[in-house]
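Good morning C.,

I know you're traveling, so I'll keep this short. The sequence:
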Amino acid sequence: MSRIGILPIDLPAGVSIEVDSDNLVTVKGPKGELQQQVDKNITVKAEDNQISVSRSSEVKDHKAKHGLYRSLMNNMVIGVSEGYTIKQELVGVGYRAEVKGNNRLELSLGFSHDIFIQMPAEVKVEAVTERRANPVITLTSIDKQLIGEVAAKIRSFRPPEPYKGKGIKFVGEQLRRKAGKAASV
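The tokens, ready to paste straight into the viewer:
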């Protein structure tokens, strides 16, 4: 029995769900619309402002997908009703972030050239730089998976290092710091 898969998903006001004959689930809400193809062995039912997910048998593969698809549906419902936001902080002397043109992020991270990233249309980006504070990049989207991939890609250009903590980190993230070289006695 899947502990996550059996939990029903409550639909907030303004959110609707449609399941077609090919098991394509479409969730519509005030912020947008998301679609997810569901495995044919998983059944999705929408009734009384709740979504329930069930499986056809006790096969190991079906049990694994039961909780997976329930979590994906829950992420879709939260995304179209509230949306997701990820904030990243650039820690380092001279590190800069700017949004140029239509959703294009320019990063200056201490390399010989700047890095330009064209954001997907579903992800909106903001870069805030205040005096005497680290630049902060804010990503917003309705798709949790996509926003996570974009945040991971940005972080991969300069992951935080353990000695001085320089690099791109999530706001509020606690880094494990290492002690430097001990002085000779």
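Safe travels,
E.
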